[in-house]
Amino acid sequence: MGGKQSMGSGTGPVSGAGPSTTPGTGASPATGDGKITVTLPDGTERSLAAGSTAGDLAASIGRRLARDALVARVNGSLVDLATPLSDGAEVEIVTGGMSEGRDVIRHSTAHVLAQAVLSLWPGARFAIGPVVEDGFYYDFELPGGERFTEAELDRISQRMREIVSEDQPFTREEHPAPEALELFSDQPFKREIIEGVAGMASPAVISTYRNSRSFADLCRGPHVPSTGRIPAFKLLRVAGAYWRGDEHRPQLQRIYGTAWESQAALDRHMEKLAEAERRDHRRLGLELDLFHFPPEVGSGLAVFHPKGALVRHLLESFSLREHLAGGYQLAWTPHVARAELFSTSGHLSWYAASMYPPMEMEGATYYLKPMNCPMHILVYKAQARSYRELPFRLFELGTVYRFERSGVLHGLARVRGLTQDDSHIFCAPGELETELASLVGFVIRILETFGLGEFEAELSTRPEKYVGSPEEWEQATAALSRALESSGIPYRVAEGEGAFYAPKIDIHLRDAIGRRWQVSTLQVDFQLPRLFDLEYVGPDNQRHRPFMIHRALFGSLERFFALLLEHYAGALPTWLAPVQVSVLPVAGNHLDYAEAVVSRAAGAGLRAELEPAGEPLGARIRRVKMAKVPYVLVVGDEDVAASTVGVNRRGASRPDRQVPLDDFLRSVLEEVASRS
After folding, report:
1. Active-site entry in 422, 506, 511, 639
2. Which of 11, 142, 416, 576 gives 300 a disulfide partner, CB atoms 3.0 to 4.6 angstroms apart?
């Protein structure tokens, strides 16, 4: 699961000088008649008594809303329902059916999980428990090195249900840092968080939430009004995690869970998880004989078997053809380079922790390349460039190496050796917007060829720490924004989430069961052209600095392979299937004709194989169908006599009998050619 830390359950106490304030409180006095006026999302205004809370507002609107309300958005910030409202505030009541409401439910459930564990294991220490996509987790250290088992999740769940049934109110409290340190005197992870906050602001105010006399947690909030407002939850699994993600710090135990606004919503999610398990590309990779991760090679490094390697080849060949047709030129670069290259590019100063260790050879230091861009820059820089050569588009199926921590490795979706369909485009500033718009269209068209859709994007803008001028950032960000506008793809702006050297677009899609995958990235870069002193001669015969666009369409070939396997549950489209046609003779006397059918199919350009009559026909049909072969052809006496085949099309309810072989081949070849 990902690391989105919405509202920071247990991780984000309020800090600041003097009393902390909550949005919508104390900003404006009531009117002379003791009333305040607030504005609802539809623009209507509502008059309330001075001192009224967000919960009072919900009750004034209606009983159902009062029952469903969890928190409120006041002047753009989420607050507890107990928060007093100020005159002129803009207020939206948030319920469990809204994404923010679900996050609040999960946030509160994480607190209940921590409360349950601490009551069942006296002396346990708790660390952080953020909301993540579709759920939450909490990290613990048990006394005496004791370990959670999967069986104990039921015991913890039962204690959580008791806490929920007690309907304990969540109450916000604020403390000076010394008082907060005393409150968590037996909790070293909490004390470390408090000390960090106190170091950033003095005097610091630390916020906590208490929902029983014996349990409180550091938290920014907000929370549901009480534990009884947690409708449905389930604990999922136990995993390991290092404190602060540092392998040199204590190893903690992480309990993952999920929570929803109703039991029906939870049941739907659990069905989705079960379907995701059936589609897990790691399992399918073994079942379909595509790839595996041998321990002799090392974690995060896949070995592809013949069928899997063939699918890779098909992906690579398709990508290569499309790029050549799109005006790209090929590059090929080595897998290692001297340290000086990565020092100039900044990778050693910014990403050294994610790079493989250096190799010392003949008095020089070498690194496995973590990215292809520095070497593509060397291709551009190998000779003087004119504006007539721009845009200069380079493409490479380049393998790179990144030493991902073992805790984040996940089959092909997160590996240490990955191949990118990597492109770098060098263009004049005036060409940037047109090139970006063309790139977005190119990316979407390629992804749609694979039957993928429901695209959305994120535009990540300038972070607090950045290089380059604000003017360059504004120009690049505006060009990216206009490219997205022209594409028609819905997008959101991720303020401050760009890389230090440039803004970017990340394109996401949803798979067959609604999961969100991040695939392509387009990034404008004005830092590397400066670091490598890149130039081109303009029409004015003067030297100018080009912009550089980084673009990986698949993201990585390995991750895209994983996405396709899970999207199609292993049943890849016919044009990508490693075996497209399996031919099964009913009995031994049909073998010659079956071999002739295989020969005809192969001669027509299809990938065909023979399943000889060494075992019962039913067993052979089941085995081939389990291998997800698109077409299973069964041939018997009538087919031999009439040059026909019995066609079992993958997913069809019944076979087609005595289909003329020529008609079958023509149909499949048309399907493959159209990539339908």
Report:
1. 422
2. 416
